[in-house]
Amino acid sequence: MYVAVKGGEQAIAAAHRLLAHERRGDRSVPALTLAQIAEQLTLAVDRVMAEGSLYDRDLAALAVKQARGDLIEAIFLLRAYRTTLPRFGFSRPVDTAAMLVRRRISATFKDLPGGQCLGPTFDYTHRLLDPLLAGDPDLPDPAERPADETAMPRVTDLLNDEGLIEPDPAETDAPVGDLTREPLSFPADRDLRLQALARGDEGFLLALGYSTQRGYGRTHPFVGEIRLGDVEVEIDVPELGFSVAIGRITVTECQMVTQFKGSAKAPPAFTRGYGLVFGHQERKAMAMSLVDRALRAGDLGEDRVAPAQDEEFVLSHSDNVQSTGFVEHLKLPHYVDFQAELDLIRRMRAEIAARQEAAE
Amino acid sequence: MTDMDDARFPPLSNSLPRGERGPVGGSGAGADAGVELNGALSPLVGESGREGAPGAVLDDQANLRTYSFAYLDEQTKRMIRRAILKGIAIPGYQVPFASREMPMPYGWGTGGVQVTAAVLGPDDVLKVIDQGADDTTNAVAIRGFFQKTAGVATTTRTADATVIQTRHRIPERTLQAHQILVYQVPIPEPLRYLEPRETETRKLHGLEEYGLMHVKLYEDIARHGHIATTYAYPVKVEGRYIMDPSPTPKFDNPKMHRSKALQLFGAGREKRIYAVPPHTDVVSLDFEDHPFRIQTFKEPCALCGAEGVYLDEVILDDRGGRMFVCSDTDHCEERRAEGHRGALSGESR
Amino acid sequence: MSAVATLPDAEEERPLLKVSRLSHYYGSRLGCRDVSLDVYPGEVVAVVGESGSGKTTLLNCLAGRLTPTAGSVEFRMRDGRLRGLFSLTEAERRLLARTDWGFVHQNPADGLRMTVSAGANVGERLMAVGDRHYGRIRSTALDWLARVEIEADRIDDDPRAFSGGMRQRLQIARNLVTRPRLVFMDEPTGGLDVSVQARLLDLLRQLVADLGLAAIVVTHDLAVARLLSDRMLVMKGGEVIEHGLTDRVLDDPREPYTQLLVSSILQV
Question: How many domains does chain C have?
Fold first, then answer.
């Protein structure tokens, strides 16, 4: 006698108990604190905040812990939380020229007002595993200098003063799109494209950005500037008639200076690609600016032939919460569909066999 | 961890009216036998700072107040209802909607869950099936989600349900006018594999340019002697829009035709909702000389002896032993309760 | 040319396509300027010129693929009325494009579905206009494959397995299956070997005559124009510089540029 499989409910509960157990690991090893994650796995936390689209270090640290270090899972946790939050409004555009800069480099000018400032970077480290880090070695305090009053204008603003680069689009009263509140439709404007890229998967954007460098939609990019630091977030308070700072966030901005464009009428000027990401995420900001520029091909009258220039392709596949869900849904039962295919393939094979038999 | 303040875990909908539809625990109307009532809430939904670690499961009634009925806030539900109404007004047309991230992965039924959340009321009785069965893991997970967040009565009996969320099957029992069938849809666009571009497929729908669809069917016959589409078999709705019925086997297509029940389709990742209102024509595409046919099975269900139903193949051993049983577990159980027996069911159960 | 042989009846006196003072600019760059042209039923018009002369721009405007900057293009619909191409809705234009019109691309891959069988390529238009009988679609496809000299046993092969000449013939069959009244051809023999070209031209000439097709053929090859067309336009720098019966233009070119073209090409 056959008894149909039952007990999905118990199986799920047991699986989740086991998951919690494995997440904790060896109980004789002290549990990670959120402070440890937030302080020592900063860049993981930054990535989760950025792609989770929610600036909250503690929650991101919690998500990293709960996800056992699986960053896409952590991003998903944060997103699922974010989506339940009421939206009160939106901030004024952050002013990155007024950033409290921790790092600022330009690849286009050797020196410039405000200077180059390396800041905390893996660049120029020798990638040698450091056995000392197996322990908790004493570290010298970082060198500090008081913040000076020298302005640190953006490189693109300097170029713009000379008219050498296309100006930033003028601020308009047009409402800023929100792809978390309105379904994305194509063609998408740049506000929505940038929004999608800012929360897009770092690996995907990195590969696309890389592909533009290898000739799939070349843009001849120069890093005009990368800057990392804190900016104030301000919101307009209609009752007060002025804007109020509600906090400070760390962001990484990358301004890519790209292929110039001109015509008989308009003198040539460099074009731009833009990247702005929560936290310290240089790779992502750079990749984002490359892809942003590639996606502007249509606006700038270039042929759209490469994947990175194809807005539907890029925006439809950049979100890792979507892609991980759909790829992983293949784990779900598909008995019914598979049965339908089995039936057909058996029937077709039988027909061919019958034909062959008849022919013999 | 313990120093996290309340502000980080704000109540989900403290400023939103919940109306009169809040979860009401055990007072769900018509709480008949077999009805499961709402259990605990997931973390991060209450004032967990006050409770201590947000990892703690909250189960006291006070915390439910902070949570919208059926998880989604009322604003979002209204937005989804508007999309549903538009879908009903234009049968088979894919209505874009601002799909939300749900606490389950995209591709795992987030579209269906959002539609269900938007149509569910406290008096509804919910049934969730996946592959025709109530106890497949994903069906269990989704049913559990609505027990937690809406506290509605649930059932496995098709006849008792007012809302049925499904993945991949339509119940064998004919649905009635008071019932809503909510389909989980992975890829809503029937033309997607012929034309990957959304801008182009929308145009093709708009201009009713569907020749390509028949090219695909033509190719199947030319190459295989059959239309080789066995599930997600495209249909034409009310003589206008070509629609993907979701990956149900084509066996179920005829059940959609002029169904008395309202059929709603939700695709969360692709952000589309569409609908087939009651008594609407749903016709499977075919050729005059290669008419649409549903699958047939050589043997009846091994447990309940049912014929003319969709069967799952179960492999019994590694020597080719297999049996076929109803994919619709409720249908099978009901028949066995009525005394029907199949070849492999015991004499008494 | 033979097409002059039949006397035009009343219907044929009215132009099928009427082009008036058509210009197209790409931004400030000239594509073509001030072109006027009438095409009558059953008539083949060749547009010749070297690359950059504006002939492809003109063709794309006439076929509704480019919106002209100025001027008008009108087509006589089946109800006998002339309709402005750009006043049609996109749905009407697309319907026209898959029924009454054909468009033969220079590169067959642009006009074929390379991954579906030859039979489906030919049958697509029939299905697009509502034919729902597999057997009938297939036998029509077989008939058309025969007319363009493709073996019946290739019907289920896809065009990737075809030679360049076969692909072009398949593209032609795919276009003609709905018996269009007007066919646009963009260098239909370009990119083919000389011997393959000759065979294709022969076939085209016969089909055009058999079906009484009107066609507009863009080519840089005066031999193609002589073999296929009744009338021809010579374009240079975006403008039509000479226009007349094909035999007249080729045997007695008036414009110095045309004389140059004729002498430099036809001597070879």
Answer: 2
Q: What is the pLDDT of residue B10?
A: 39
- The count of domains in chain A is 3
Q: Could you report the per-residue pLDDT of A179-232, keeping only the tens digit for each? A: 888 888 888 999 999 999 999 999 999 999 999 999 898 888 999 999 999 999
CA dist., res. A341 & res. B251, Å (int): 12
- Can you give the pLDDT at residue C8? 47
Beta strands in chain A (DSSP E): 100-105, 222-237, 242-261, 269-278
Q: Could you tell me if A115 and A100 are in contact, meaning their C-beta atoms sit under 8 angstroms apart?
A: no
- Residue B318's φ and ψ, nearest 5 degrees, are -100, 20
> Is B332 part of the annotated catalytic residue set?
yes
Average confidence (pLDDT) over A302-306: 88
* C140 belongs to a structural domain: yes
- Indicate yes or no: CB of B222 within 8 angstroms of CB of C133: no
| pLDDT per residue as tens digits for the range A225-249 | 999 999 999 998 888 888 899 999 9
Give C98-128 pLDDT, tens digit per residue.
899 999 999 999 999 988 999 999 999 999 9
| Per-residue pLDDT, B32 | 38
For residues A282-292, average pLDDT: 97
User: In chain A, which residues have their Cβ closer than 8 Å to the Cβ of C27?
Assistant: 263
**A196 within a domain of the structure (yes/no):** yes
Q: What domain range includes position A264?
A: 96-122+149-168+181-318
d(CA C134, CA C266): 48
Within 10 angstroms of residue B96's Cβ, the number of other Cβ atoms is: 17
In angstroms, the CA B164 to CA B157 distance is 10
**Omega of the bond prior to A169 within 30 degrees of 0, cis?**
no
Which ipTM did the prediction report?
0.85
- The residue out of C134, C163, C179 marking a domain boundary is C179
Query: Same structural domain for residues A52 and A27?
Result: yes
Which chain A residues touch B332 with a CB distance below 8 Å? Answer: 4
A264 at C interface, C-beta within 8 A: yes
Q: What's the pLDDT at B225?
A: 86
Using the 3D structure, point to which of B295, B319, B334 is the last residue of a domain: B295
- Domain co-membership, A100 together with A200: yes
Q: What is the pLDDT of residues A3-18, one digit of tens each?
A: 444 667 788 889 999 9
Residue B112 lies in a domain: yes
Q: Are residues B117 and B188 in the same domain?
A: yes
Number of structural domains found in chain B: 2
Secondary structure of residue B221 in the 3-state scheme: helix
Nearest Cα of chain C lies from the Cα of A265 at a distance, in angstroms, of 10
Is the domain of A35 the same as that of A68? Answer: yes
Residue B74 is classified by DSSP as H
Average pLDDT value over all residues in chain A? 90
**Both A240 and A351 in a single domain?**
no
CB atoms within 10 A of CB A88: 7
Q: Are residues B125 and B265 in the same domain?
A: yes
Instruction: State in Å, rounded, how far the first CA of chain C is from the last one.
Output: 22
Of B28, B111, B266, B304, the active-site residue reads: B304
Task: Mark which of C163, C179, C195 sits at the end of a domain.
Answer: C179
Give DSSP secondary structure letters for A219-232.
Answer: ---EEEEEEEEEEE
Query: A76 contacts in B (CB within 8 Å)?
Result: 101, 105
Tell me the average pLDDT of chain B. 82
Neighbour-count burial of B159, counting CB atoms closer than 10 A to its CB (0-12 exposed, 13-18 middle, 19+ buried): middle
CATH number at residue C20: 3.40.50.300
C95 and C189 both lie in a single domain: yes
Among the ranges given (A95-109, C5-19, C231-245), the one the predictor scored with the smallest mean pLDDT: C5-19
> Quick one: pLDDT band at residue C162, thresholds 50, 70, 90?
very high
* pLDDT (0 to 100) of residue C9: 53
Catalytically annotated residue among B87, B92, B151, B268: B92
**Smallest CA–CA separation between B283 and chain C, in Å?**
14
